[in-house]
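Hi support team,

I've been running sequence recovery on a batch of backbones for a student project. Most finish fine, but this one hangs at about 90% for roughly twenty minutes before it completes. I'm not sure whether the input is malformed or the queue is just slow. I've pasted the structure tokens below so you can try to reproduce it. Let me know if you need the job ID as well.

Thanks,
M.K.
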């Protein structure tokens, strides 16, 4: 019997080394141990998520699909190698088995690194794909900029100005009151952390002050949403975690 899935219940995506493996629906009356239909839904490339294909159209293992963002039951997937220009970005509804490929800007030789994420603006009612890109210009320092594409509108990429590249190339999913937050990537581990934000309605990029006296580098920190507030955790100490 086909069972419809309600949007009123959240889901947890289960992954293995960034590879999508299954989805677990969180319903209050479920017995996750005795009833098989309430166990995690295994995701297969044949139905739930797109197959990764190279430039010649050959399919590869689903481990080439990397989870890079999620919101409202939709997931954002990177298909391909992070250091290969022949990659694709997909938006997928894994439970319905529906997905589409995001139209990306033409690749530029001066591009050094890119990072993507998916987010939703309750203020505008629009889904947005964010693209952080670092470009190298001759005889000039590298420039990190943020580009935005509104899905289902014009789907054109717009440059909203300079913005810090996210830590390890991952934005995360820290959306608090319509503002996306992320930690800045920094090659110098001795440099103290830097937090940046993007307003999903006004599309303004702003730096965010860190707690006074914080000297921990970004690699030792994590951002999260806690009680509708921005939360910063410091796990550098082996004895305790500061929040």
């Amino acid at each position: 019997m086909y069972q419809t899935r309600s949007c009123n219940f959240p889901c947890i995506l289960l992954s293995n080394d960034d590879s999508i493996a299954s989805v677990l629906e969180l319903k209050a009356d479920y017995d996750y141990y005795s009833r098989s239909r309430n166990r995690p839904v295994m995701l297969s490339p044949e139905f739930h998520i797109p197959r990764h294909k190279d430039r010649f159209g050959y399919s590869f293992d689903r481990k080439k699909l990397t989870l890079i963002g999620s919101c409202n039951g939709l997931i954002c997937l990177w298909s391909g190698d992070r250091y290969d220009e022949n990659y694709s970005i997909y938006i997928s509804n894994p439970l319905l088995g529906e997905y589409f490929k995001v139209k990306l800007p033409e690749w530029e030789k001066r591009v050094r690194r890119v990072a993507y994420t998916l987010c939703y603006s309750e203020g505008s009612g629009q889904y947005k794909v964010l693209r952080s890109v670092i470009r190298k210009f001759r005889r000039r320092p590298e420039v990190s900029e943020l580009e935005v594409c509104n899905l289902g509108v014009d789907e054109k990429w717009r440059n909203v100005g300079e913005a810090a590249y996210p830590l390890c190339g991952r934005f995360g999913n820290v959306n608090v009151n319509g503002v996306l937050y992320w930690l800045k990537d920094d090659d110098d581990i001795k440099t103290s952390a830097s937090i940046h934000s993007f307003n999903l309605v006004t599309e303004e990029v702003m730096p965010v002050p860190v707690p006074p006296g914080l000297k921990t580098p970004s690699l030792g920190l994590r951002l999260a949403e806690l009680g509708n507030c921005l939360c910063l955790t410091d796990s550098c100490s082996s004895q305790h975690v500061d929040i």
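--
Follow-up from support: It reproduced on our side and the slowdown came from queue contention, not your input. Residues 107-243 form one domain. No action needed from you.
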